[in-house]
């Protein structure tokens, strides 16, 4: 049986923190699908197609990782894909409370699919897409926060 994990998120845009979680997840599961969620309430900087393209580019060296987008409820999507697990990253205690709520709700919706949490790599514990966007706006150096194609895409967004 192929063990599939879904790595859900906004990825607006993908950072080295995300990539670290994806890569580590891909070592444990046979297949990892990164699912880009279209959360309109977050007013994303990059549209879903742009976020998917950037993820495809920065994960192309990972044979067992694929990228998808999703408008449905996560647990319905995961069931449809026959996934065994959801992978989420944890940075700080502040992530914990929110993740506990979501995970309890997800378990209520579908108890067959487990959620696994991976602790951030220490060097990325303060890294988020929001911080990256904030810094990129002021044209500061973000080369150690995001992969080169993402750096380029951000420069393009904030040009002019
Ligand atoms: P969401 O809007 O669902 O929180 P994000 O794109 O912000 O989506 O994050 C997707 C996943 O990646 C989440 O599980 C989040 O905790 C994790 N993540 C984001 N940044 C980091 C980081 N620097 N280190 C570890 N995990 C991270």
Fill in the keyword field for this structure.
five-stranded parallel β-sheet, Rossmann fold, binds adenosine-5'-diphosphate, 5 strands, alpha/beta, 6 helices, PPAT, 160 residues
Structural overview:
The protein is α/β, with parallel strands linked by helices and 160 residues long. It has a single domain, classed as 3-Layer(aba) Sandwich (Rossmann fold). The protein is 42% helix and 19% strand. It contains 6 helices and 5 strands, in the order E-H-E-H-E-H-E-H-E-H-H. The protein has helices spanning 16-28, 48-58, 74-80, 93-109, 129-137, 148-157, and strands at 4-9, 31-37, 65-70, 85-90, 114-119. The chain has a 5-stranded parallel beta sheet, with helices on both faces. The longest helix is centred in the middle third of the chain and has 17 residues, at 93-109. It is globular, with a radius of gyration of 15 Å. The chain starts with a strand and ends with a helix. The mean pLDDT is 95. Residues 9-11, 15, 17-18, 21, 88-89, 91, 95, 120, 124, 127-129 line the site of adenosine-5'-diphosphate.
**Mean of residue pLDDT?**
95
Instruction: Give the low-pLDDT segments.
Output: none
Number of helices: 6
What gyration radius follows from the Cα positions, in whole Å?
15 Å
Order of helices and strands: EHEHEHEHEHH
Q: Helicity, in percent?
A: 40-55%
Overall shape = globular
Q: What characterizes the major β-sheet?
A: 5 strands, parallel
Order of strands in the sheet with the most strands? 3-2-1-4-5
CATH architecture: 3-Layer(aba) Sandwich
**Separation, N- and C-terminal Cα atoms:** 51 Å
Structural class: alpha/beta
The number of domains is 1
């Amino acid at each position: 049986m192929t063990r599939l994990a879904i790595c859900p998120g906004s990825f607006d845009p993908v950072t080295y923190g995300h990539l670290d979680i994806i890569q580590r997840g891909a070592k444990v599961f046979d297949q990892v699908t990164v699912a880009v969620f279209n959360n309109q309430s977050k007013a994303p900087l990059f549209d879903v197609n742009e976020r998917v393209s950037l993820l495809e580019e920065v994960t192309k060296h990972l044979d067992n990782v694929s990228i998808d987008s999703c408008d449905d409820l996560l647990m319905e999507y995961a069931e449809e894909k026959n996934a065994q697990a959801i992978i989420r990253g944890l940075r700080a205690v502040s992530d914990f409370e929110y993740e506990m709520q979501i995970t309890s709700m997800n378990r209520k919706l579908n108890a067959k699919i487990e959620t696994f949490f991976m602790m951030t790599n220490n060097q990325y514990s303060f890294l988020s897409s929001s911080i990256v966007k904030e810094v990129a706006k002021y044209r500061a150096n973000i080369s150690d926060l995001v992969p080169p194609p993402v750096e380029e895409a951000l420069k393009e967004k904030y040009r002019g």
